[in-house]
Amino acid sequence: MTEDCTLVIFGATGNLAQVKLFPALYHLEATGLLDPGLKILCTGRSEFDREAWLAHVAASIEGHARDELKEGLFQRFCDRISYFRGDLSLPDTYDELKRELANGDYPRNHVFYVAMPPATYGDIVENLGESQMLDEADGPWRRVVIEKPFGSDLESARNLQHKIARHLREHQTYRIDHYMGKAMVQNVLVSRFANLMLEPLWNRNYIDQVQITRSETVGVGSRAGFYENTGALRDMLQSHLMQMMALVAMEPPVSMDSDDLRDEKVKVLKSIRPIHNSAVSAHAFRAQYAPGTVGGESVPGYLEEPNVDPRSVTETYAALKLYVDNWRWRDVPFYLRTGKRMAEARTMVAICFKQPPKHFFRSVHIERPPPNWLIMSMSPEESLRLEITVKEPGMTMQTRQISLDAPFRCEHDERTDAYEGLLLDVIEGDNSLFLRYDEVEHAWRVVDPVLRAWSSERDYIATHPAGQWEPAEVSRIFDKPDHHWRSMLEPEKWPSGSC
To answer: Where are any strands of DSSP class E within 362-483?
Structure first.
Protein backbone atom coordinates (compact mmCIF):
# COMPACT_ATOMS: atom_id res chain seq x y z
CA MET A 1 0.00 0.00 0.00
CA THR A 2 1.37 3.42 -0.95
CA GLU A 3 1.66 6.34 1.42
CA ASP A 4 -1.00 9.00 1.65
CA CYS A 5 0.12 11.89 -0.59
CA THR A 6 -0.80 14.29 -3.39
CA LEU A 7 0.61 13.51 -6.83
CA VAL A 8 0.85 16.72 -8.87
CA ILE A 9 1.34 16.06 -12.59
CA PHE A 10 2.81 19.02 -14.47
CA GLY A 11 1.99 18.72 -18.18
CA ALA A 12 -1.02 16.45 -17.66
CA THR A 13 -2.33 17.22 -21.16
CA GLY A 14 0.90 16.02 -22.77
CA ASN A 15 1.82 12.73 -24.40
CA LEU A 16 3.71 11.20 -21.45
CA ALA A 17 0.82 11.66 -19.05
CA GLN A 18 -1.75 10.41 -21.55
CA VAL A 19 0.17 7.36 -22.77
CA LYS A 20 2.01 6.28 -19.62
CA LEU A 21 1.07 7.99 -16.36
CA PHE A 22 -2.73 7.80 -16.38
CA PRO A 23 -2.84 4.15 -17.57
CA ALA A 24 -0.20 3.21 -14.97
CA LEU A 25 -2.10 4.92 -12.15
CA TYR A 26 -5.34 3.29 -13.29
CA HIS A 27 -3.69 -0.15 -13.23
CA LEU A 28 -2.40 0.55 -9.71
CA GLU A 29 -5.95 1.48 -8.73
CA ALA A 30 -7.20 -1.81 -10.18
CA THR A 31 -4.72 -3.83 -8.13
CA GLY A 32 -5.47 -1.94 -4.92
CA LEU A 33 -1.94 -0.61 -4.51
CA LEU A 34 -2.87 3.05 -4.15
CA ASP A 35 -3.55 4.40 -0.68
CA PRO A 36 -7.23 5.38 -0.29
CA GLY A 37 -6.19 8.93 0.60
CA LEU A 38 -3.94 9.53 -2.41
CA LYS A 39 -5.03 12.47 -4.59
CA ILE A 40 -3.98 13.34 -8.14
CA LEU A 41 -3.86 16.99 -9.15
CA CYS A 42 -3.43 17.43 -12.92
CA THR A 43 -2.11 20.70 -14.29
CA GLY A 44 -2.25 22.18 -17.78
CA ARG A 45 -2.73 25.43 -19.67
CA SER A 46 -5.95 24.34 -21.40
CA GLU A 47 -9.38 25.12 -20.01
CA PHE A 48 -11.27 22.06 -18.75
CA ASP A 49 -14.27 21.71 -16.51
CA ARG A 50 -14.32 18.57 -14.36
CA GLU A 51 -16.55 16.56 -16.68
CA ALA A 52 -14.49 17.38 -19.77
CA TRP A 53 -11.23 16.56 -18.00
CA LEU A 54 -12.42 13.19 -16.74
CA ALA A 55 -13.59 12.36 -20.27
CA HIS A 56 -10.10 13.25 -21.46
CA VAL A 57 -8.53 10.94 -18.86
CA ALA A 58 -10.96 8.15 -19.77
CA ALA A 59 -9.95 8.41 -23.43
CA SER A 60 -6.28 8.12 -22.47
CA ILE A 61 -6.86 5.03 -20.38
CA GLU A 62 -9.12 3.37 -22.95
CA GLY A 63 -6.46 3.86 -25.60
CA HIS A 64 -3.54 2.49 -23.59
CA ALA A 65 -4.74 0.31 -20.70
CA ARG A 66 -4.31 -3.46 -20.78
CA ASP A 67 -8.02 -4.13 -20.21
CA GLU A 68 -11.29 -2.45 -20.99
CA LEU A 69 -12.31 0.49 -18.84
CA LYS A 70 -14.47 -0.69 -15.93
CA GLU A 71 -17.05 1.87 -14.94
CA GLY A 72 -17.03 1.29 -11.17
CA LEU A 73 -13.24 1.12 -11.02
CA PHE A 74 -12.86 4.22 -13.17
CA GLN A 75 -15.31 6.15 -10.99
CA ARG A 76 -13.22 5.28 -7.94
CA PHE A 77 -10.15 6.46 -9.81
CA CYS A 78 -11.91 9.70 -10.81
CA ASP A 79 -12.66 10.48 -7.18
CA ARG A 80 -8.92 11.04 -6.73
CA ILE A 81 -8.53 13.44 -9.65
CA SER A 82 -8.70 17.23 -9.83
CA TYR A 83 -7.62 19.65 -12.53
CA PHE A 84 -5.69 22.90 -12.06
CA ARG A 85 -5.33 25.33 -14.92
CA GLY A 86 -2.13 27.38 -15.01
CA ASP A 87 0.82 28.46 -17.11
CA LEU A 88 3.96 27.05 -15.48
CA SER A 89 6.13 29.67 -17.14
CA LEU A 90 4.53 32.34 -14.92
CA PRO A 91 5.71 32.64 -11.28
CA ASP A 92 2.21 33.67 -10.14
CA THR A 93 0.94 30.22 -11.16
CA TYR A 94 2.98 28.62 -8.38
CA ASP A 95 1.48 30.88 -5.73
CA GLU A 96 -1.99 29.89 -6.97
CA LEU A 97 -0.98 26.22 -6.94
CA LYS A 98 0.32 26.56 -3.39
CA ARG A 99 -3.01 27.98 -2.25
CA GLU A 100 -4.86 25.17 -4.04
CA LEU A 101 -2.77 22.50 -2.30
CA ALA A 102 -3.29 24.16 1.09
CA ASN A 103 -7.09 24.23 0.96
CA GLY A 104 -7.45 21.06 3.03
CA ASP A 105 -8.60 18.74 0.24
CA TYR A 106 -5.12 17.34 -0.43
CA PRO A 107 -2.68 15.31 1.68
CA ARG A 108 0.33 17.34 2.83
CA ASN A 109 2.98 15.01 1.33
CA HIS A 110 3.60 16.05 -2.27
CA VAL A 111 5.10 14.44 -5.36
CA PHE A 112 5.64 16.82 -8.27
CA TYR A 113 5.94 14.85 -11.53
CA VAL A 114 7.45 17.08 -14.24
CA ALA A 115 6.02 15.57 -17.44
CA MET A 116 7.26 18.57 -19.42
CA PRO A 117 9.99 19.33 -21.99
CA PRO A 118 13.52 18.96 -20.49
CA ALA A 119 14.27 22.65 -21.10
CA THR A 120 11.69 23.54 -18.42
CA TYR A 121 13.07 21.38 -15.60
CA GLY A 122 15.33 23.98 -14.04
CA ASP A 123 12.78 26.80 -14.13
CA ILE A 124 9.98 24.62 -12.71
CA VAL A 125 12.12 23.47 -9.78
CA GLU A 126 13.30 27.02 -9.22
CA ASN A 127 9.73 28.35 -9.13
CA LEU A 128 8.63 25.56 -6.79
CA GLY A 129 11.52 26.41 -4.51
CA GLU A 130 10.88 30.15 -4.59
CA SER A 131 7.25 29.45 -3.65
CA GLN A 132 8.39 27.38 -0.64
CA MET A 133 6.67 24.25 -1.97
CA LEU A 134 9.79 22.07 -1.67
CA ASP A 135 10.54 22.85 1.98
CA GLU A 136 10.41 19.78 4.25
CA ALA A 137 11.13 21.69 7.46
CA ASP A 138 7.53 21.54 8.67
CA GLY A 139 7.30 17.73 8.48
CA PRO A 140 5.63 16.57 5.23
CA TRP A 141 7.96 15.35 2.51
CA ARG A 142 8.42 16.76 -1.00
CA ARG A 143 9.67 14.84 -4.05
CA VAL A 144 10.24 15.89 -7.65
CA VAL A 145 10.34 13.48 -10.60
CA ILE A 146 12.09 14.49 -13.81
CA GLU A 147 12.40 12.45 -16.99
CA LYS A 148 15.47 11.97 -19.13
CA PRO A 149 17.35 13.54 -20.80
CA PHE A 150 19.15 15.15 -17.88
CA GLY A 151 21.00 17.72 -19.93
CA SER A 152 22.30 17.34 -23.48
CA ASP A 153 25.99 17.04 -22.61
CA LEU A 154 28.26 17.19 -19.59
CA GLU A 155 28.16 20.98 -19.27
CA SER A 156 24.38 21.28 -19.56
CA ALA A 157 23.89 18.41 -17.08
CA ARG A 158 26.09 20.24 -14.58
CA ASN A 159 24.22 23.48 -15.15
CA LEU A 160 20.87 21.76 -14.60
CA GLN A 161 22.12 20.10 -11.43
CA HIS A 162 23.47 23.41 -10.13
CA LYS A 163 20.07 24.99 -10.69
CA ILE A 164 17.93 22.32 -9.05
CA ALA A 165 20.38 21.63 -6.19
CA ARG A 166 19.68 25.12 -4.85
CA HIS A 167 16.14 23.98 -4.00
CA LEU A 168 16.22 20.16 -3.86
CA ARG A 169 18.33 17.75 -1.89
CA GLU A 170 19.41 14.55 -3.59
CA HIS A 171 16.96 12.37 -1.64
CA GLN A 172 14.11 14.52 -2.98
CA THR A 173 15.21 14.24 -6.62
CA TYR A 174 13.92 11.28 -8.64
CA ARG A 175 15.56 11.14 -12.08
CA ILE A 176 13.50 8.54 -13.84
CA ASP A 177 14.83 6.21 -16.53
CA HIS A 178 11.83 4.00 -17.29
CA TYR A 179 14.11 1.21 -18.56
CA MET A 180 15.21 0.64 -14.98
CA GLY A 181 11.61 -0.19 -14.11
CA LYS A 182 11.30 -2.97 -16.67
CA ALA A 183 11.12 -6.38 -15.06
CA MET A 184 13.59 -7.91 -17.48
CA VAL A 185 16.21 -5.24 -16.82
CA GLN A 186 15.87 -5.90 -13.10
CA ASN A 187 16.19 -9.61 -13.92
CA VAL A 188 19.78 -8.90 -14.99
CA LEU A 189 20.51 -8.25 -11.32
CA VAL A 190 18.62 -11.31 -10.11
CA SER A 191 20.17 -13.61 -12.70
CA ARG A 192 23.62 -12.47 -11.67
CA PHE A 193 23.41 -12.41 -7.91
CA ALA A 194 20.87 -15.16 -7.16
CA ASN A 195 22.66 -17.85 -9.17
CA LEU A 196 26.05 -18.80 -7.79
CA MET A 197 27.02 -20.82 -10.86
CA LEU A 198 27.38 -17.64 -12.93
CA GLU A 199 29.57 -15.62 -10.58
CA PRO A 200 32.84 -17.59 -11.06
CA LEU A 201 32.56 -17.09 -14.84
CA TRP A 202 31.55 -13.40 -14.72
CA ASN A 203 34.95 -11.88 -15.44
CA ARG A 204 37.70 -11.31 -17.99
CA ASN A 205 39.10 -14.84 -17.57
CA TYR A 206 36.05 -16.41 -19.19
CA ILE A 207 34.13 -13.68 -21.04
CA ASP A 208 35.36 -12.57 -24.45
CA GLN A 209 32.89 -9.74 -25.14
CA VAL A 210 29.58 -8.28 -24.00
CA GLN A 211 26.98 -6.84 -26.38
CA ILE A 212 23.98 -4.71 -25.45
CA THR A 213 21.46 -4.03 -28.22
CA ARG A 214 18.34 -1.89 -28.45
CA SER A 215 17.06 -1.93 -32.02
CA GLU A 216 13.76 -0.58 -33.33
CA THR A 217 11.88 -0.98 -36.59
CA VAL A 218 10.02 2.34 -36.21
CA GLY A 219 11.30 5.65 -37.52
CA VAL A 220 11.36 9.00 -35.76
CA GLY A 221 7.73 9.70 -36.70
CA SER A 222 6.37 12.83 -35.04
CA ARG A 223 9.48 13.16 -32.84
CA ALA A 224 11.68 14.51 -35.64
CA GLY A 225 11.87 17.97 -34.09
CA PHE A 226 13.13 16.48 -30.83
CA TYR A 227 15.36 13.95 -32.55
CA GLU A 228 17.17 16.52 -34.68
CA ASN A 229 18.58 18.04 -31.50
CA THR A 230 19.18 14.75 -29.74
CA GLY A 231 20.18 11.77 -31.88
CA ALA A 232 20.52 8.12 -30.96
CA LEU A 233 23.60 8.52 -28.78
CA ARG A 234 21.89 10.94 -26.39
CA ASP A 235 18.41 9.46 -26.67
CA MET A 236 19.17 5.82 -25.92
CA LEU A 237 22.81 4.90 -25.57
CA GLN A 238 23.99 7.41 -22.96
CA SER A 239 21.01 6.63 -20.74
CA HIS A 240 19.26 3.27 -21.18
CA LEU A 241 22.14 1.20 -22.56
CA MET A 242 24.79 2.51 -20.20
CA GLN A 243 22.49 1.79 -17.28
CA MET A 244 22.10 -1.78 -18.51
CA MET A 245 25.88 -2.01 -18.92
CA ALA A 246 26.33 -0.89 -15.31
CA LEU A 247 23.99 -3.64 -14.11
CA VAL A 248 25.88 -6.27 -16.09
CA ALA A 249 29.33 -5.12 -14.95
CA MET A 250 28.76 -4.00 -11.34
CA GLU A 251 30.13 -5.74 -8.29
CA PRO A 252 27.70 -7.30 -5.79
CA PRO A 253 26.36 -4.46 -3.62
CA VAL A 254 26.53 -4.60 0.14
CA SER A 255 22.72 -4.65 0.11
CA MET A 256 19.88 -3.77 -2.25
CA ASP A 257 19.37 -0.46 -0.46
CA SER A 258 19.25 2.43 -2.88
CA ASP A 259 22.63 3.98 -2.13
CA ASP A 260 24.46 0.64 -1.98
CA LEU A 261 23.07 -0.35 -5.38
CA ARG A 262 23.80 3.01 -6.97
CA ASP A 263 27.29 3.16 -5.46
CA GLU A 264 28.25 0.04 -7.40
CA LYS A 265 26.78 1.38 -10.65
CA VAL A 266 28.76 4.59 -10.23
CA LYS A 267 31.96 2.59 -9.71
CA VAL A 268 31.42 0.96 -13.11
CA LEU A 269 30.79 4.27 -14.85
CA LYS A 270 33.85 5.83 -13.19
CA SER A 271 35.97 2.88 -14.32
CA ILE A 272 35.11 3.21 -18.02
CA ARG A 273 38.25 3.98 -19.97
CA PRO A 274 38.12 7.53 -21.36
CA ILE A 275 37.81 7.86 -25.13
CA HIS A 276 40.47 10.22 -26.39
CA ASN A 277 39.59 12.63 -29.16
CA SER A 278 42.00 10.91 -31.55
CA ALA A 279 40.40 7.49 -30.87
CA VAL A 280 36.73 8.35 -31.40
CA SER A 281 36.53 6.66 -34.82
CA ALA A 282 37.91 3.41 -33.32
CA HIS A 283 35.35 3.44 -30.50
CA ALA A 284 32.22 4.98 -31.99
CA PHE A 285 30.19 4.70 -35.18
CA ARG A 286 27.07 6.51 -36.36
CA ALA A 287 24.66 6.13 -39.26
CA GLN A 288 21.26 7.19 -40.60
CA TYR A 289 18.52 5.07 -42.08
CA ALA A 290 17.90 5.64 -45.77
CA PRO A 291 14.73 4.75 -47.72
CA GLY A 292 13.92 1.06 -47.53
CA THR A 293 11.32 -1.56 -46.77
CA VAL A 294 9.91 -2.41 -43.32
CA GLY A 295 7.22 -5.06 -42.93
CA GLY A 296 6.73 -5.22 -46.67
CA GLU A 297 6.05 -1.49 -46.96
CA SER A 298 8.30 1.19 -48.43
CA VAL A 299 9.33 3.81 -45.88
CA PRO A 300 11.21 7.09 -46.26
CA GLY A 301 14.73 7.70 -45.08
CA TYR A 302 15.50 9.97 -42.17
CA LEU A 303 16.23 12.94 -44.42
CA GLU A 304 12.78 12.59 -45.99
CA GLU A 305 10.96 12.62 -42.64
CA PRO A 306 8.88 15.74 -41.84
CA ASN A 307 10.74 18.51 -39.98
CA VAL A 308 14.18 17.02 -40.70
CA ASP A 309 16.88 19.21 -42.24
CA PRO A 310 17.73 17.60 -45.62
CA ARG A 311 21.43 18.19 -44.83
CA SER A 312 21.20 16.68 -41.34
CA VAL A 313 23.93 14.40 -40.02
CA THR A 314 21.97 13.50 -36.88
CA GLU A 315 22.53 9.83 -36.15
CA THR A 316 19.60 7.43 -35.98
CA TYR A 317 22.07 4.60 -35.29
CA ALA A 318 24.92 4.70 -32.79
CA ALA A 319 27.41 2.07 -31.68
CA LEU A 320 30.04 2.38 -28.99
CA LYS A 321 32.90 0.24 -27.75
CA LEU A 322 33.77 0.70 -24.09
CA TYR A 323 36.20 -0.88 -21.63
CA VAL A 324 35.79 -1.09 -17.86
CA ASP A 325 39.27 -0.71 -16.41
CA ASN A 326 38.92 -2.67 -13.20
CA TRP A 327 40.10 -6.05 -11.94
CA ARG A 328 37.03 -7.94 -13.18
CA TRP A 329 36.66 -6.54 -16.70
CA ARG A 330 40.06 -5.24 -17.84
CA ASP A 331 40.29 -5.39 -21.69
CA VAL A 332 36.88 -7.02 -22.21
CA PRO A 333 35.07 -4.96 -24.87
CA PHE A 334 31.51 -3.88 -24.18
CA TYR A 335 29.73 -3.19 -27.47
CA LEU A 336 26.61 -1.02 -27.21
CA ARG A 337 24.33 -0.18 -30.13
CA THR A 338 20.95 1.31 -30.79
CA GLY A 339 19.12 2.29 -33.95
CA LYS A 340 15.81 3.04 -35.62
CA ARG A 341 14.42 1.38 -38.76
CA MET A 342 16.52 -1.71 -38.15
CA ALA A 343 15.81 -5.22 -39.39
CA GLU A 344 14.26 -6.29 -36.11
CA ALA A 345 12.96 -4.75 -32.91
CA ARG A 346 14.96 -6.27 -30.06
CA THR A 347 16.46 -5.49 -26.68
CA MET A 348 19.02 -7.93 -25.35
CA VAL A 349 22.27 -8.48 -23.51
CA ALA A 350 24.50 -11.04 -25.25
CA ILE A 351 27.55 -12.38 -23.42
CA CYS A 352 30.09 -14.31 -25.46
CA PHE A 353 32.45 -16.65 -23.62
CA LYS A 354 35.99 -17.43 -24.61
CA GLN A 355 36.99 -20.59 -26.45
CA PRO A 356 38.30 -23.51 -24.38
CA PRO A 357 42.09 -23.32 -23.85
CA LYS A 358 42.58 -26.54 -25.82
CA HIS A 359 40.49 -28.14 -28.56
CA PHE A 360 40.52 -31.92 -28.05
CA PHE A 361 38.27 -33.05 -30.87
CA ARG A 362 40.48 -32.28 -33.85
CA SER A 363 38.91 -34.98 -35.97
CA VAL A 364 35.50 -33.30 -36.09
CA HIS A 365 34.40 -31.46 -39.18
CA ILE A 366 34.30 -28.10 -37.38
CA GLU A 367 37.84 -27.29 -36.29
CA ARG A 368 36.68 -24.36 -34.19
CA PRO A 369 33.19 -24.74 -32.68
CA PRO A 370 31.19 -21.59 -32.14
CA PRO A 371 31.59 -19.95 -28.73
CA ASN A 372 29.14 -20.30 -25.88
CA TRP A 373 26.65 -17.45 -25.56
CA LEU A 374 24.44 -16.39 -22.68
CA ILE A 375 21.64 -14.18 -23.94
CA MET A 376 19.19 -12.23 -21.82
CA SER A 377 16.36 -11.08 -24.06
CA MET A 378 14.21 -8.22 -22.78
CA SER A 379 11.97 -7.81 -25.83
CA PRO A 380 10.09 -8.98 -27.74
CA GLU A 381 10.73 -12.25 -25.87
CA GLU A 382 11.55 -12.21 -22.17
CA SER A 383 13.89 -15.15 -21.91
CA LEU A 384 17.27 -16.51 -20.95
CA ARG A 385 19.20 -18.59 -23.49
CA LEU A 386 22.43 -20.53 -23.04
CA GLU A 387 24.13 -21.92 -26.16
CA ILE A 388 26.56 -24.79 -25.79
CA THR A 389 28.34 -27.34 -28.00
CA VAL A 390 27.35 -31.02 -27.80
CA LYS A 391 28.02 -34.21 -29.74
CA GLU A 392 25.64 -35.10 -32.53
CA PRO A 393 23.85 -38.47 -32.31
CA GLY A 394 25.55 -41.16 -34.35
CA MET A 395 28.80 -43.08 -34.62
CA THR A 396 31.02 -40.23 -35.78
CA MET A 397 32.44 -37.50 -33.59
CA GLN A 398 30.50 -34.53 -34.89
CA THR A 399 29.38 -31.57 -32.82
CA ARG A 400 26.56 -29.10 -33.03
CA GLN A 401 25.24 -26.08 -31.18
CA ILE A 402 22.16 -26.41 -29.00
CA SER A 403 20.36 -23.88 -26.86
CA LEU A 404 18.87 -24.17 -23.40
CA ASP A 405 15.93 -21.76 -23.26
CA ALA A 406 13.98 -20.51 -20.28
CA PRO A 407 11.16 -17.94 -20.58
CA PHE A 408 11.08 -15.39 -17.79
CA ARG A 409 7.33 -14.99 -18.12
CA CYS A 410 4.68 -17.68 -18.11
CA GLU A 411 1.35 -17.30 -19.89
CA HIS A 412 -0.57 -16.69 -16.67
CA ASP A 413 1.91 -14.13 -15.30
CA GLU A 414 0.51 -10.64 -15.01
CA ARG A 415 2.08 -8.04 -17.25
CA THR A 416 2.86 -4.64 -15.80
CA ASP A 417 4.29 -1.45 -17.23
CA ALA A 418 7.56 -0.04 -15.92
CA TYR A 419 5.86 3.18 -14.85
CA GLU A 420 3.60 1.32 -12.44
CA GLY A 421 6.46 0.13 -10.27
CA LEU A 422 8.38 3.39 -10.58
CA LEU A 423 5.40 5.50 -9.54
CA LEU A 424 4.95 3.28 -6.49
CA ASP A 425 8.64 3.64 -5.67
CA VAL A 426 8.40 7.44 -5.79
CA ILE A 427 5.40 7.50 -3.47
CA GLU A 428 7.07 5.03 -1.09
CA GLY A 429 10.38 6.91 -1.16
CA ASP A 430 12.44 4.09 -2.71
CA ASN A 431 14.92 5.69 -5.12
CA SER A 432 17.07 2.62 -5.82
CA LEU A 433 15.93 2.44 -9.46
CA PHE A 434 16.30 6.18 -10.03
CA LEU A 435 19.49 7.87 -11.13
CA ARG A 436 21.68 9.72 -8.71
CA TYR A 437 23.42 12.79 -10.07
CA ASP A 438 26.89 11.24 -10.03
CA GLU A 439 25.57 8.46 -12.30
CA VAL A 440 24.33 11.06 -14.74
CA GLU A 441 27.58 13.02 -14.69
CA HIS A 442 29.86 10.04 -15.22
CA ALA A 443 27.72 8.75 -18.10
CA TRP A 444 28.01 12.14 -19.82
CA ARG A 445 31.78 12.09 -19.22
CA VAL A 446 32.00 8.88 -21.24
CA VAL A 447 30.14 10.10 -24.33
CA ASP A 448 31.17 13.77 -24.31
CA PRO A 449 34.30 13.23 -26.50
CA VAL A 450 32.15 11.41 -29.06
CA LEU A 451 29.55 14.17 -29.10
CA ARG A 452 32.24 16.80 -29.63
CA ALA A 453 33.85 14.86 -32.47
CA TRP A 454 30.57 14.20 -34.24
CA SER A 455 29.46 17.82 -33.90
CA SER A 456 32.52 18.89 -35.91
CA GLU A 457 32.05 16.23 -38.62
CA ARG A 458 29.27 17.73 -40.71
CA ASP A 459 30.17 16.51 -44.20
CA TYR A 460 29.36 12.79 -44.13
CA ILE A 461 27.38 10.16 -42.26
CA ALA A 462 27.07 6.48 -43.21
CA THR A 463 23.64 5.14 -44.15
CA HIS A 464 21.82 1.83 -44.16
CA PRO A 465 18.54 0.97 -45.92
CA ALA A 466 15.55 1.06 -43.58
CA GLY A 467 14.62 -2.48 -42.58
CA GLN A 468 18.22 -3.71 -42.60
CA TRP A 469 20.97 -3.88 -40.03
CA GLU A 470 23.81 -1.38 -39.75
CA PRO A 471 26.43 -0.69 -42.45
CA ALA A 472 29.44 -3.01 -42.66
CA GLU A 473 31.74 -0.10 -41.76
CA VAL A 474 30.75 -0.52 -38.11
CA SER A 475 33.20 -3.45 -37.98
CA ARG A 476 36.01 -0.93 -37.46
CA ILE A 477 35.14 -0.70 -33.75
CA PHE A 478 35.53 -4.45 -33.15
CA ASP A 479 38.57 -5.70 -31.27
CA LYS A 480 38.99 -8.95 -33.21
CA PRO A 481 38.24 -10.14 -36.75
CA ASP A 482 35.78 -12.74 -35.44
CA HIS A 483 33.76 -10.21 -33.45
CA HIS A 484 30.43 -9.35 -35.02
CA TRP A 485 27.02 -8.24 -33.83
CA ARG A 486 24.74 -10.86 -32.39
CA SER A 487 21.60 -9.61 -34.08
CA MET A 488 19.14 -12.46 -33.67
CA LEU A 489 18.05 -14.52 -30.71
CA GLU A 490 18.37 -17.79 -32.62
CA PRO A 491 21.86 -19.27 -33.08
CA GLU A 492 23.58 -18.42 -36.30
CA LYS A 493 23.66 -21.04 -39.05
CA TRP A 494 26.99 -22.60 -38.30
CA PRO A 495 28.64 -24.99 -40.76
CA SER A 496 27.72 -28.66 -40.97
CA GLY A 497 26.80 -30.12 -37.64
CA SER A 498 24.68 -27.28 -36.24
CA CYS A 499 21.01 -27.30 -35.33
So the answer is: 373-379, 383-391, 399-407, 462-465
Query: Which pLDDT tens digit goes with each residue over 86-128?
Result: 999 999 999 999 999 999 899 999 999 999 999 999 999 999 9
In a domain, 187, yes or no: yes
Burial class of residue 192 in the structure, from the number of CB atoms within 10 Å of its CB (0-12 exposed, 13-18 middle, 19+ buried): middle
Strand pairing category for 284-290 and 462-465: parallel
Judge if 343 and 458 occupy the same domain. yes
Q: Is 240 a catalytic residue?
A: yes
Q: Is the pTM of this model over 0.85?
A: yes
Residue 209: phi, psi to the nearest 5? -160, 160
Which of 240, 283, 442, 464 is an active site residue? 240
CB distance 109 to 4 below 8 Å: yes
Rounded Cα distance between 193 and 173, Å, is 28
Q: Are residues 117 and 194 in the same domain?
A: no
Of 98, 132, 147, which one is at a domain's C-terminal end? 147
Residue closest to 317 by CA, chosen among 335, 343, 291, 339: 339
Taking the C-alpha atoms of residue 35 and residue 39, their distance in angstroms, rounded to an integer, is: 9
Cα-based angle 104, 105, 109 (whole degrees, multiple of 5): 80
Looking at the structure, tell me whether residues 377 and 314 fall in a common domain. Answer: yes
Rounded Cα–Cα distance for residues 161 and 164 (Å) = 5
467: three-class secondary structure by DSSP: coil
Peptide bond into 380 cis (omega under 30): yes
Is the distance from CB of 213 to CB of 487 less than 8 angstroms?
yes
What single-letter amino acid sits at 94? Y
Residue 295 is assigned to a structural domain of this protein: yes
Q: What is the pLDDT of residues 368-382, one digit of tens each?
A: 678 999 999 988 888
As a whole number of angstroms, the distance between CA 284 and CA 183 comes to: 29
Domain enclosing residue 97, as ranges: 6-147
